Amino acid sequence: MHTTSLPHRPTRRSGRSLAGVLAALAVSGLALVATAAPASATDEFPSKPTASATIGCDDGTSFITLQLGNEDGLDSAHFDVSITGIADAGYDVATGTTSQVLQYGIAENSDVTVAITADDGFTFTKALHADCWSFVGGIVQTCDGTQPVLTANVDAIGTYGDSVDLHVNGTTVDSADLATGDSTSFTAQVPDGVPFTAELVSVHDGTITDLSGTPHCVQPTTTTSTVVPTTPAPTVPTQVVPQQVNAPVAPAPYVAPTELPRTGSSTVPLTVLGVTLVGLGIAARRFAATRRA
């Protein structure tokens, strides 16, 4: 049996399907482009921030030097800098470069802190001390006999030397210009027994050291006397026998006076007495004779 194929119209479905797919992809791509966030430049091209801080000395002031680097970065780096006593500031450093920043006006003998932040969580912190003019010294008070004397010694150990003065009770009594590494000594006399205040002072460094006090080189004269304490006579308590408290008191025994023999007494009274008795006897005899007659 022979079969004959019937003629038919070619279909256009496949062409229409391909066009629809392409259109749908185009719409989806536009939607993705419209809704997707742009790629971060820091993720694709990160910066590499670095930082350092040092303190230096200029003629008359201290300053801080900052080195802000981005030498290995693929994009510019932004730095925020904070320094004690100085207004905060921001700096941008291009890729492959280093920027040097000088900050002046740091007070002498002050402590400062440098804090730096940058991209990608970078942080840097450093504490610094300004001591361009640094000195060590001391003041002592001694006695030259009865005269009080102040002696002050000072050494310049900082980056720079300076003019140093010795003040006594607010008055400059001596001064010297010291280069770094130099030393000097001052002396001054003060009154005995009078309070004083002495200071070593640097023009840039301020007060180096001080001493206050009242000298006593003249010793007061004192008289020492020894007092021997009187020892009181011991008191013997009267002992009382209980059974004799109410006993009668016996009278004191009679003692006859003792008559001492006479020695060297006068005989005149005895002679007078004898003569008187003889006279009386004669008179009695006469009286008796008269009566008999």
Please, could you describe this protein's structure?
With 293 residues, the chain is α+β, with helices and mostly antiparallel strands. Among the domains are: 45-129, Sandwich (Immunoglobulin-like); 135-213, Sandwich (Immunoglobulin-like), CATH 2.60.40.10. Helices cover 18% and strands 39% of the residues. A 4-stranded antiparallel β-sheet has the order 4-3-6-7, with no helix packed on it. It has a 4-stranded antiparallel β-sheet with strand order 11-10-13-14, with no helix packed on it. A 3-stranded antiparallel β-sheet has the order 1-2-5, with no helix packed on it. The termini are far apart. The model is unreliable at 1-15 and 30-42 (pLDDT under 50).
| General shape | rod-shaped
Mean pLDDT: 79
Could you describe the largest sheet, including whether it forms a barrel? 4 strands, antiparallel
| CATH topology (level 3) name of the domain at 45-129 | Immunoglobulin-like
Looking across the biggest beta sheet, what order are the strands in? Answer: 4-3-6-7
- At CATH level 2, the architecture of the domain at 45-129 is Sandwich
* Proportion in β-strands: 35-45%
- What class would the helix/strand composition place it in? alpha+beta
According to DSSP, the number of beta strands is 14
- Individual helix count: 3
**Helix share bin:** 10-25%
CA-based gyration radius: 66 Å
Order of helices and strands: HHEEEEEEEEEEEEEEH
**Low-confidence segments:** 1-15, 30-42
Given this structure, which CATH class of the domain at 45-129 is correct? Mainly Beta
| Distance between the first and last residues' Cα | 267 Å
